[in-house]
Write a structure and sequence with these properties.
heterodimer, A: about 140 residues, alpha+beta, five-stranded mixed β-sheet, two-stranded antiparallel ribbon, 7 strands, elongated, B: about 150 residues, 5 helices
């Protein structure tokens, strides 16, 4: 279930023609850890929880997906946050083997300075909530 | 026909019941958040944690009138731009960038890796979100039936 969800999100993110968020991070979106060479303008997605919402005859999961957005500029970080919200909030996303999923914004953390950092690296967080059901 | 209206008394009962309910829920959230945090710490092999963060997950009475109770990390030294306890709580909850392969600081030439989020407060809040209405109803019913 989770693999299909992240595949669907990535497909939506990288769909052509490229959206503002894709152009803002130059296609740099990975699951859990970023690539070593990424320093500026990149994003990472994490699954922060999958809760069972099963009914008598169907298997439903409530999933929480978090996007962390990093940039060396505070303003760019805020812009990335805005673009990420515009791309995913309230949008139906096609997921392999599942009904289309609607992401709903759960919480948002404005740009804050990251930890143990010599350079200024700003981090913003946005989390989405969605319900997934197999076809 | 005579109708007796105990508006003020009823209001007092509702306020008292809602305060008790919010305190009970806040305490349950704190307990779960501490358990979640301990679970994350146990998973880390070389943890240097001394349990300071866990000790600061507390309930507090809101400073506003009839504001109920708050649950969260309450540190005196909350300065997000410095390495303080409050700032660390945010980074544990949401994840953060970190130096690669044991280096002390990330520099522009150095390489960045990402420490994944270890949410402890969010799952606890979600778990008790559904119980809020039921707890309020129970408390109010108990007072009204007395």
């Amino acid at each position: 279930m989770s693999n299909d969800l992240f595949t669907g999100i990535y497909t939506h993110f990288s769909a052509e023609p490229h959206n503002d968020f894709y152009n803002g991070v130059e296609g740099r979106l990975e699951y859990v850890r970023g690539l070593p060479e990424w320093v500026d303008n990149y994003s990472i997605m994490d699954g922060t929880g999958f809760h069972a919402h099963d009914t008598f005859d169907s298997e439903i999961d409530e999933a929480f997906v978090q996007f962390s957005l990093f940039s060396t500029s505070r303003l760019t970080c805020g812009e990335l946050l805005k673009k990420c919200k515009a791309l995913f909030d309230g949008v139906l996303i096609s997921i392999p083997n599942h009904y289309p999923v609607k992401l709903k914004r759960e919480l948002q953390l404005p740009p804050t300075l990251s930890d143990n950092i010599e350079i200024e690296l700003w981090q913003a967080v946005i989390e989405f909530d969605c319900m997934i059901q197999k076809v | 026909m005579k109708i007796e209206w105990h508006g003020n008394e009823l209001m007092q009962v509702v306020v008292k019941a809602s305060e008790e309910a919010s305190k009970e829920i806040a305490e349950a959230i704190v307990k779960d958040a501490k358990n979640n945090l301990n679970r994350h710490i146990r998973r880390t092999k070389k943890s240097k944690s001394r349990g300071t963060l866990g000790a600061h997950i507390q309930t507090r009475k809101s400073k506003f009138k009839d504001g109920g109770y708050l649950a969260g990390v309450f540190a005196k030294d909350f300065r997000p731009w410095e390495d303080t306890l409050g700032a660390r709580a945010v980074f544990v909850e949401f994840g953060h960038a970190a130096p690669y392969k044991g280096r002390k600081y990330v520099t522009r030439k150095n390489i960045v890796k990402h420490i994944p989020p270890r949410p402890f407060l969010r799952p606890a809040i979600r778990k008790h979100k559904r119980k809020v209405k039921r707890t309020f109803n129970e408390k109010i019913n108990r007072y009204l039936n007395q």
